[in-house]
Amino acid sequence: MTIANKKRGAKAMLLTNALLLSPTAAKAAHAYEPSAWAQADVDRAFAFDLIPSELADDYRKPITRAELSAVIVRLYERLTGRAVPAPTVHPFTDTDNADVRKAYALELVGGTGKGVFSPKAPVTREQLAVMLYNTIAKAGLADKLPSLASESFRDAGAIAGWAKEASERLSAAGILKGAQMKEGVLFQPKSNASREQIFSIAYRVASAYGPLYIRGESDLLEAVEHRGRELIFKDDRSKRIYEEAKRANDSIIAPGMSDFEKELAIHDYLVLHVAYDYDNYLKDTVPADSYSAFGSLVRGTAVCQGYAYAAHIMLELAGIDSQIVTGTANGGGHAWNKVNIGGEYYNLDVTWDDPVPDEKGRLAYSYFNVTDAALSQDHTWNAAEWPAATAVKYDYFEYKGWAMHSAAELKAYIANAIASRLSEVSFKAVYDGDERADISEAFAASDALSGYSYSYSGRAYTLKLRYWQPAS
Fold it and tell me: Three-state DSSP class for 51?
Protein backbone atom coordinates (compact mmCIF):
# COMPACT_ATOMS: atom_id res chain seq x y z
CA MET A 1 0.00 0.00 0.00
CA THR A 2 1.18 3.50 -0.73
CA ILE A 3 1.91 5.62 2.32
CA ALA A 4 2.28 9.37 2.15
CA ASN A 5 5.16 10.30 4.43
CA LYS A 6 3.73 12.77 6.93
CA LYS A 7 5.85 13.59 9.90
CA ARG A 8 5.06 16.11 12.53
CA GLY A 9 5.96 19.60 11.33
CA ALA A 10 7.89 22.06 13.45
CA LYS A 11 5.90 24.54 15.47
CA ALA A 12 5.91 28.09 14.11
CA MET A 13 8.77 30.12 15.53
CA LEU A 14 9.47 33.80 15.81
CA LEU A 15 12.63 35.36 14.48
CA THR A 16 15.71 33.82 15.99
CA ASN A 17 18.37 34.99 13.56
CA ALA A 18 19.66 38.48 14.19
CA LEU A 19 20.56 38.76 10.51
CA LEU A 20 16.88 39.07 9.67
CA LEU A 21 16.93 42.73 10.54
CA SER A 22 20.59 43.41 10.89
CA PRO A 23 22.03 45.82 8.31
CA THR A 24 25.03 43.51 8.08
CA ALA A 25 22.97 40.64 6.64
CA ALA A 26 24.76 38.14 4.43
CA LYS A 27 24.69 38.91 0.73
CA ALA A 28 23.34 36.70 -2.03
CA ALA A 29 25.38 35.75 -5.05
CA HIS A 30 23.11 37.91 -7.24
CA ALA A 31 20.90 40.82 -6.24
CA TYR A 32 17.90 39.24 -7.97
CA GLU A 33 18.18 36.23 -5.63
CA PRO A 34 17.42 36.35 -1.90
CA SER A 35 20.37 35.93 0.43
CA ALA A 36 20.90 32.38 1.61
CA TRP A 37 19.56 33.15 5.10
CA ALA A 38 16.36 34.63 3.62
CA GLN A 39 15.62 32.18 0.81
CA ALA A 40 13.28 29.85 2.73
CA ASP A 41 11.31 32.67 4.34
CA VAL A 42 10.99 34.55 1.05
CA ASP A 43 9.66 31.41 -0.62
CA ARG A 44 7.11 30.99 2.17
CA ALA A 45 6.17 34.67 2.01
CA PHE A 46 5.36 34.18 -1.67
CA ALA A 47 3.25 31.14 -0.77
CA PHE A 48 1.41 33.28 1.79
CA ASP A 49 0.80 35.93 -0.91
CA LEU A 50 2.66 38.57 1.10
CA ILE A 51 4.95 39.75 -1.70
CA PRO A 52 3.65 41.78 -4.66
CA SER A 53 4.95 40.33 -7.93
CA GLU A 54 6.65 43.61 -8.83
CA LEU A 55 8.90 43.29 -5.78
CA ALA A 56 10.22 39.85 -6.71
CA ASP A 57 13.66 41.20 -7.63
CA ASP A 58 16.59 43.10 -6.20
CA TYR A 59 15.95 41.61 -2.77
CA ARG A 60 18.77 43.44 -0.96
CA LYS A 61 17.54 46.83 -2.12
CA PRO A 62 16.23 49.10 0.68
CA ILE A 63 12.46 48.87 0.73
CA THR A 64 10.53 52.08 0.10
CA ARG A 65 7.53 53.41 2.01
CA ALA A 66 5.17 52.54 -0.86
CA GLU A 67 6.61 49.04 -1.19
CA LEU A 68 6.31 48.42 2.54
CA SER A 69 2.70 49.62 2.38
CA ALA A 70 1.97 46.90 -0.17
CA VAL A 71 3.52 44.24 2.09
CA ILE A 72 1.79 45.29 5.31
CA VAL A 73 -1.61 45.49 3.61
CA ARG A 74 -1.14 41.90 2.49
CA LEU A 75 0.07 40.99 5.97
CA TYR A 76 -3.05 42.57 7.49
CA GLU A 77 -5.24 40.56 5.10
CA ARG A 78 -3.41 37.39 6.03
CA LEU A 79 -3.71 38.06 9.76
CA THR A 80 -7.43 38.84 9.61
CA GLY A 81 -8.65 36.73 6.70
CA ARG A 82 -10.35 39.83 5.31
CA ALA A 83 -9.64 41.60 2.03
CA VAL A 84 -9.09 45.34 2.30
CA PRO A 85 -11.43 47.26 -0.03
CA ALA A 86 -10.04 50.03 -2.19
CA PRO A 87 -10.68 53.34 -0.40
CA THR A 88 -12.34 56.22 -2.18
CA VAL A 89 -10.17 58.90 -0.56
CA HIS A 90 -7.00 60.22 -2.17
CA PRO A 91 -5.06 61.78 0.71
CA PHE A 92 -1.68 62.39 -0.91
CA THR A 93 -0.51 64.63 -3.69
CA ASP A 94 2.68 62.70 -4.46
CA THR A 95 1.14 59.22 -4.90
CA ASP A 96 -2.16 57.59 -5.74
CA ASN A 97 -0.86 54.07 -5.10
CA ALA A 98 -3.76 51.78 -4.14
CA ASP A 99 -1.77 49.97 -1.43
CA VAL A 100 -0.62 53.23 0.10
CA ARG A 101 -4.24 54.44 0.24
CA LYS A 102 -5.36 51.13 1.80
CA ALA A 103 -2.59 51.26 4.41
CA TYR A 104 -3.45 54.88 5.21
CA ALA A 105 -7.17 54.13 5.48
CA LEU A 106 -6.36 51.33 7.94
CA GLU A 107 -4.13 53.72 9.90
CA LEU A 108 -1.12 51.48 9.34
CA VAL A 109 0.91 54.36 7.87
CA GLY A 110 0.87 58.13 7.95
CA GLY A 111 2.20 60.87 5.75
CA THR A 112 5.53 62.69 6.02
CA GLY A 113 4.01 66.12 5.70
CA LYS A 114 0.81 67.88 4.71
CA GLY A 115 -0.62 65.85 1.82
CA VAL A 116 2.78 64.18 1.28
CA PHE A 117 3.65 60.50 1.64
CA SER A 118 7.18 60.28 0.16
CA PRO A 119 6.50 56.92 -1.53
CA LYS A 120 10.06 56.41 -2.79
CA ALA A 121 11.78 57.21 0.48
CA PRO A 122 13.53 54.24 2.12
CA VAL A 123 12.09 52.94 5.35
CA THR A 124 14.11 53.25 8.54
CA ARG A 125 14.01 50.60 11.21
CA GLU A 126 12.08 52.82 13.62
CA GLN A 127 9.52 53.62 10.90
CA LEU A 128 9.25 49.92 10.16
CA ALA A 129 8.64 49.20 13.86
CA VAL A 130 5.69 51.59 13.95
CA MET A 131 4.14 50.37 10.69
CA LEU A 132 4.54 46.74 11.66
CA TYR A 133 3.18 47.28 15.17
CA ASN A 134 0.21 49.20 13.76
CA THR A 135 -0.52 46.26 11.45
CA ILE A 136 -0.44 43.72 14.28
CA ALA A 137 -2.54 45.97 16.54
CA LYS A 138 -5.09 46.75 13.84
CA ALA A 139 -5.49 43.00 13.27
CA GLY A 140 -6.40 42.69 16.97
CA LEU A 141 -3.25 40.80 17.93
CA ALA A 142 -1.31 43.37 19.98
CA ASP A 143 -2.20 41.58 23.21
CA LYS A 144 -0.18 38.58 22.01
CA LEU A 145 3.03 40.65 22.11
CA PRO A 146 5.09 40.83 25.32
CA SER A 147 4.86 44.18 27.07
CA LEU A 148 8.52 44.52 28.04
CA ALA A 149 11.64 44.60 25.89
CA SER A 150 13.78 41.46 26.04
CA GLU A 151 17.06 43.31 25.52
CA SER A 152 18.38 46.77 26.16
CA PHE A 153 19.84 48.54 23.15
CA ARG A 154 22.92 50.71 23.67
CA ASP A 155 21.45 53.25 21.25
CA ALA A 156 17.92 53.21 22.71
CA GLY A 157 18.17 56.95 23.25
CA ALA A 158 18.39 57.44 19.49
CA ILE A 159 14.95 55.86 18.91
CA ALA A 160 12.37 58.60 18.31
CA GLY A 161 9.73 58.94 21.00
CA TRP A 162 6.95 58.10 18.56
CA ALA A 163 8.67 54.77 17.79
CA LYS A 164 9.74 53.66 21.29
CA GLU A 165 6.69 51.58 22.26
CA ALA A 166 6.51 49.82 18.91
CA SER A 167 10.27 49.12 18.93
CA GLU A 168 10.17 47.76 22.49
CA ARG A 169 7.12 45.54 21.95
CA LEU A 170 8.45 44.06 18.70
CA SER A 171 11.89 43.57 20.22
CA ALA A 172 10.37 41.76 23.21
CA ALA A 173 8.53 39.46 20.79
CA GLY A 174 11.76 38.70 18.96
CA ILE A 175 10.39 40.22 15.76
CA LEU A 176 12.88 43.11 15.52
CA LYS A 177 16.35 42.31 16.78
CA GLY A 178 19.44 44.37 17.24
CA ALA A 179 22.90 43.91 15.79
CA GLN A 180 25.80 42.87 18.02
CA MET A 181 28.56 45.44 17.72
CA LYS A 182 31.74 46.12 19.71
CA GLU A 183 29.91 48.66 21.83
CA GLY A 184 26.99 46.32 22.50
CA VAL A 185 23.64 45.48 20.91
CA LEU A 186 22.43 48.32 18.69
CA PHE A 187 18.95 48.85 17.33
CA GLN A 188 20.20 51.29 14.67
CA PRO A 189 16.86 53.09 14.33
CA LYS A 190 17.91 55.28 11.41
CA SER A 191 19.26 52.41 9.28
CA ASN A 192 17.30 51.21 6.29
CA ALA A 193 15.66 47.78 5.97
CA SER A 194 15.91 45.69 2.81
CA ARG A 195 13.15 44.01 0.87
CA GLU A 196 14.23 40.52 1.86
CA GLN A 197 14.36 41.47 5.53
CA ILE A 198 10.79 42.78 5.36
CA PHE A 199 9.56 39.71 3.45
CA SER A 200 11.12 37.43 6.05
CA ILE A 201 9.57 39.37 8.93
CA ALA A 202 6.15 39.49 7.28
CA TYR A 203 6.16 35.72 6.78
CA ARG A 204 7.21 35.01 10.35
CA VAL A 205 4.65 37.38 11.85
CA ALA A 206 1.93 35.78 9.72
CA SER A 207 3.15 32.32 10.64
CA ALA A 208 3.38 33.03 14.37
CA TYR A 209 0.27 35.16 14.90
CA GLY A 210 -2.07 34.78 11.97
CA PRO A 211 -4.80 32.24 11.31
CA LEU A 212 -3.87 28.99 9.63
CA TYR A 213 -5.24 28.50 6.13
CA ILE A 214 -6.39 24.99 5.33
CA ARG A 215 -6.19 24.20 1.62
CA GLY A 216 -5.96 20.43 1.96
CA GLU A 217 -5.61 17.59 4.43
CA SER A 218 -1.85 18.03 4.81
CA ASP A 219 -2.48 21.59 6.02
CA LEU A 220 -5.03 20.30 8.52
CA LEU A 221 -2.67 17.65 9.88
CA GLU A 222 -0.14 20.40 10.58
CA ALA A 223 -2.64 23.01 11.76
CA VAL A 224 -4.16 20.93 14.55
CA GLU A 225 -0.75 20.92 16.23
CA HIS A 226 -1.03 24.71 16.71
CA ARG A 227 -3.65 24.74 19.44
CA GLY A 228 -5.67 27.88 19.93
CA ARG A 229 -5.00 29.23 16.44
CA GLU A 230 -7.87 30.30 14.23
CA LEU A 231 -8.39 28.06 11.20
CA ILE A 232 -9.65 29.40 7.88
CA PHE A 233 -10.79 26.64 5.56
CA LYS A 234 -10.34 26.97 1.83
CA ASP A 235 -11.13 23.30 1.25
CA ASP A 236 -14.59 21.86 2.01
CA ARG A 237 -13.32 18.31 2.33
CA SER A 238 -10.79 19.24 5.01
CA LYS A 239 -13.45 21.24 6.81
CA ARG A 240 -15.69 18.17 6.88
CA ILE A 241 -12.85 16.09 8.36
CA TYR A 242 -12.27 18.71 11.04
CA GLU A 243 -15.95 19.00 11.91
CA GLU A 244 -16.35 15.22 12.18
CA ALA A 245 -13.25 14.96 14.38
CA LYS A 246 -14.58 17.66 16.70
CA ARG A 247 -18.04 16.07 16.78
CA ALA A 248 -16.54 12.70 17.64
CA ASN A 249 -14.35 14.17 20.38
CA ASP A 250 -17.28 16.09 21.84
CA SER A 251 -19.24 12.84 22.07
CA ILE A 252 -16.56 10.80 23.86
CA ILE A 253 -14.39 13.17 25.89
CA ALA A 254 -15.70 14.42 29.21
CA PRO A 255 -14.35 17.19 31.46
CA GLY A 256 -11.74 16.01 33.91
CA MET A 257 -10.50 13.12 31.78
CA SER A 258 -6.78 12.40 31.94
CA ASP A 259 -4.76 12.27 28.72
CA PHE A 260 -4.67 8.47 29.02
CA GLU A 261 -8.46 8.36 29.27
CA LYS A 262 -8.86 10.72 26.30
CA GLU A 263 -6.48 8.63 24.22
CA LEU A 264 -8.33 5.46 25.17
CA ALA A 265 -11.69 7.01 24.21
CA ILE A 266 -10.29 8.08 20.82
CA HIS A 267 -8.76 4.65 20.20
CA ASP A 268 -12.04 2.91 21.05
CA TYR A 269 -14.08 5.29 18.90
CA LEU A 270 -11.97 4.59 15.83
CA VAL A 271 -11.88 0.83 16.39
CA LEU A 272 -15.65 0.73 16.81
CA HIS A 273 -16.57 3.15 14.00
CA VAL A 274 -14.03 2.34 11.28
CA ALA A 275 -13.66 -0.86 9.28
CA TYR A 276 -10.40 -1.71 7.55
CA ASP A 277 -10.88 -1.53 3.76
CA TYR A 278 -9.82 -5.14 3.42
CA ASP A 279 -11.61 -6.09 0.18
CA ASN A 280 -10.11 -3.20 -1.74
CA TYR A 281 -6.74 -3.86 -0.16
CA LEU A 282 -6.78 -7.46 -1.41
CA LYS A 283 -7.78 -6.31 -4.90
CA ASP A 284 -5.26 -3.44 -4.90
CA THR A 285 -8.13 -1.02 -5.55
CA VAL A 286 -7.97 1.06 -2.38
CA PRO A 287 -9.63 4.45 -3.12
CA ALA A 288 -8.00 7.74 -2.15
CA ASP A 289 -10.55 8.31 0.63
CA SER A 290 -9.33 5.23 2.48
CA TYR A 291 -5.84 6.75 2.77
CA SER A 292 -7.39 9.82 4.36
CA ALA A 293 -8.98 10.83 7.63
CA PHE A 294 -12.04 11.44 5.45
CA GLY A 295 -12.31 7.69 5.00
CA SER A 296 -12.11 7.06 8.74
CA LEU A 297 -14.29 9.89 10.02
CA VAL A 298 -16.82 10.35 7.21
CA ARG A 299 -17.05 7.07 5.30
CA GLY A 300 -16.11 4.73 8.13
CA THR A 301 -13.66 2.78 5.94
CA ALA A 302 -9.91 3.24 5.77
CA VAL A 303 -6.49 1.66 5.63
CA CYS A 304 -3.67 2.35 8.06
CA GLN A 305 -2.90 5.87 6.84
CA GLY A 306 -6.54 6.87 7.22
CA TYR A 307 -6.60 5.53 10.77
CA ALA A 308 -3.33 7.29 11.68
CA TYR A 309 -4.45 10.61 10.18
CA ALA A 310 -7.81 10.51 11.99
CA ALA A 311 -6.14 9.55 15.27
CA HIS A 312 -3.63 12.39 14.87
CA ILE A 313 -6.34 15.00 14.33
CA MET A 314 -8.53 13.76 17.19
CA LEU A 315 -5.58 13.45 19.59
CA GLU A 316 -4.26 16.93 18.84
CA LEU A 317 -7.74 18.43 19.18
CA ALA A 318 -7.92 16.71 22.58
CA GLY A 319 -4.64 18.37 23.60
CA ILE A 320 -2.44 15.30 23.19
CA ASP A 321 0.84 15.54 21.29
CA SER A 322 0.72 13.11 18.35
CA GLN A 323 3.16 12.28 15.60
CA ILE A 324 2.50 10.22 12.50
CA VAL A 325 5.04 7.45 11.97
CA THR A 326 5.60 5.72 8.64
CA GLY A 327 7.37 2.41 8.20
CA THR A 328 6.55 -1.16 7.25
CA ALA A 329 4.63 -4.06 8.79
CA ASN A 330 3.88 -7.48 7.32
CA GLY A 331 6.14 -6.54 4.43
CA GLY A 332 4.09 -3.52 3.32
CA GLY A 333 3.96 0.20 3.95
CA HIS A 334 2.32 1.11 7.22
CA ALA A 335 1.46 4.15 9.36
CA TRP A 336 0.69 4.61 13.04
CA ASN A 337 1.05 7.23 15.76
CA LYS A 338 3.41 8.16 18.53
CA VAL A 339 1.70 9.90 21.43
CA ASN A 340 3.02 11.79 24.43
CA ILE A 341 1.28 10.68 27.62
CA GLY A 342 2.62 11.85 30.95
CA GLY A 343 5.73 13.30 29.34
CA GLU A 344 6.77 10.04 27.66
CA TYR A 345 6.21 8.78 24.11
CA TYR A 346 4.36 5.57 23.27
CA ASN A 347 3.44 3.79 20.04
CA LEU A 348 -0.28 3.66 19.23
CA ASP A 349 -1.33 1.51 16.27
CA VAL A 350 -5.11 1.77 16.03
CA THR A 351 -5.16 -0.15 12.74
CA TRP A 352 -3.60 -3.26 14.23
CA ASP A 353 -6.04 -3.13 17.15
CA ASP A 354 -9.01 -3.22 14.75
CA PRO A 355 -9.91 -6.81 13.77
CA VAL A 356 -9.87 -7.78 10.08
CA PRO A 357 -12.43 -8.61 8.84
CA ASP A 358 -14.34 -6.16 10.99
CA GLU A 359 -16.05 -7.51 14.11
CA LYS A 360 -18.71 -5.18 15.45
CA GLY A 361 -18.18 -4.27 19.07
CA ARG A 362 -14.81 -5.96 19.50
CA LEU A 363 -12.03 -3.97 21.13
CA ALA A 364 -8.37 -4.94 21.38
CA TYR A 365 -5.39 -3.18 22.96
CA SER A 366 -2.34 -5.13 21.82
CA TYR A 367 -0.83 -2.02 20.22
CA PHE A 368 -2.02 0.60 22.69
CA ASN A 369 0.98 2.54 24.05
CA VAL A 370 3.67 -0.02 23.44
CA THR A 371 7.41 0.51 23.51
CA ASP A 372 9.67 0.62 20.47
CA ALA A 373 11.16 -2.70 21.57
CA ALA A 374 7.73 -4.35 21.64
CA LEU A 375 6.59 -2.81 18.38
CA SER A 376 9.79 -3.74 16.56
CA GLN A 377 8.77 -7.39 16.78
CA ASP A 378 6.48 -6.83 13.78
CA HIS A 379 7.01 -3.20 12.66
CA THR A 380 10.04 -1.48 11.16
CA TRP A 381 10.76 2.24 10.84
CA ASN A 382 13.64 4.70 10.94
CA ALA A 383 13.74 5.20 14.69
CA ALA A 384 16.03 8.23 14.41
CA GLU A 385 13.22 10.26 12.82
CA TRP A 386 10.85 10.03 15.80
CA PRO A 387 11.12 10.24 19.60
CA ALA A 388 12.07 7.03 21.37
CA ALA A 389 9.30 5.13 23.15
CA THR A 390 10.73 3.29 26.14
CA ALA A 391 8.24 3.90 28.96
CA VAL A 392 5.73 1.25 30.03
CA LYS A 393 3.62 3.09 32.62
CA TYR A 394 0.78 3.85 30.20
CA ASP A 395 0.94 0.65 28.21
CA TYR A 396 -2.70 -0.45 28.34
CA PHE A 397 -2.03 -3.77 30.06
CA GLU A 398 0.60 -2.39 32.44
CA TYR A 399 -1.76 0.44 33.42
CA LYS A 400 -4.60 -2.00 34.07
CA GLY A 401 -2.36 -4.41 35.97
CA TRP A 402 -2.93 -7.09 33.35
CA ALA A 403 0.64 -7.46 32.08
CA MET A 404 2.04 -10.87 32.94
CA HIS A 405 5.78 -10.81 33.52
CA SER A 406 6.32 -14.52 34.18
CA ALA A 407 4.62 -17.88 33.74
CA ALA A 408 4.03 -18.07 37.49
CA GLU A 409 2.32 -14.68 37.49
CA LEU A 410 0.07 -15.73 34.60
CA LYS A 411 -0.93 -19.00 36.27
CA ALA A 412 -1.73 -17.21 39.52
CA TYR A 413 -3.77 -14.60 37.61
CA ILE A 414 -5.86 -17.33 35.93
CA ALA A 415 -6.28 -19.25 39.19
CA ASN A 416 -7.57 -16.11 40.89
CA ALA A 417 -10.02 -15.47 38.01
CA ILE A 418 -11.37 -19.03 38.37
CA ALA A 419 -11.64 -18.71 42.15
CA SER A 420 -13.64 -15.51 41.63
CA ARG A 421 -15.76 -17.26 38.98
CA LEU A 422 -15.08 -14.54 36.43
CA SER A 423 -16.53 -15.22 33.02
CA GLU A 424 -13.95 -13.17 31.08
CA VAL A 425 -10.42 -11.90 31.73
CA SER A 426 -7.79 -10.19 29.62
CA PHE A 427 -4.01 -10.08 29.87
CA LYS A 428 -0.84 -9.64 27.86
CA ALA A 429 2.21 -11.87 28.15
CA VAL A 430 5.40 -9.82 28.32
CA TYR A 431 7.85 -12.54 29.31
CA ASP A 432 9.96 -14.97 27.34
CA GLY A 433 8.10 -18.24 27.18
CA ASP A 434 5.12 -20.12 25.75
CA GLU A 435 2.11 -18.44 27.28
CA ARG A 436 -0.36 -20.78 25.54
CA ALA A 437 1.20 -23.80 27.19
CA ASP A 438 1.03 -21.91 30.48
CA ILE A 439 -2.67 -21.14 29.91
CA SER A 440 -3.35 -24.84 29.31
CA GLU A 441 -1.50 -25.82 32.48
CA ALA A 442 -3.44 -23.25 34.52
CA PHE A 443 -6.79 -24.58 33.29
CA ALA A 444 -5.73 -28.19 33.75
CA ALA A 445 -5.05 -27.45 37.42
CA SER A 446 -8.70 -26.56 38.04
CA ASP A 447 -11.74 -28.85 38.08
CA ALA A 448 -14.20 -25.92 38.34
CA LEU A 449 -14.33 -25.27 34.60
CA SER A 450 -16.57 -26.97 32.09
CA GLY A 451 -14.66 -25.32 29.27
CA TYR A 452 -12.87 -22.24 28.08
CA SER A 453 -11.96 -20.38 24.89
CA TYR A 454 -9.69 -17.52 24.06
CA SER A 455 -9.01 -14.96 21.34
CA TYR A 456 -5.73 -13.18 20.92
CA SER A 457 -3.94 -10.43 19.07
CA GLY A 458 -0.19 -10.71 19.23
CA ARG A 459 0.45 -11.72 22.83
CA ALA A 460 -2.69 -10.09 24.23
CA TYR A 461 -5.47 -12.52 25.16
CA THR A 462 -9.10 -12.49 26.18
CA LEU A 463 -10.19 -15.65 27.96
CA LYS A 464 -13.83 -16.73 28.25
CA LEU A 465 -14.49 -19.16 31.10
CA ARG A 466 -17.39 -21.59 31.55
CA TYR A 467 -18.10 -23.26 34.89
CA TRP A 468 -19.86 -26.45 36.00
CA GLN A 469 -23.20 -25.65 37.51
CA PRO A 470 -23.37 -26.58 41.20
CA ALA A 471 -25.49 -29.67 41.96
CA SER A 472 -29.07 -28.83 42.96
Answer: coil
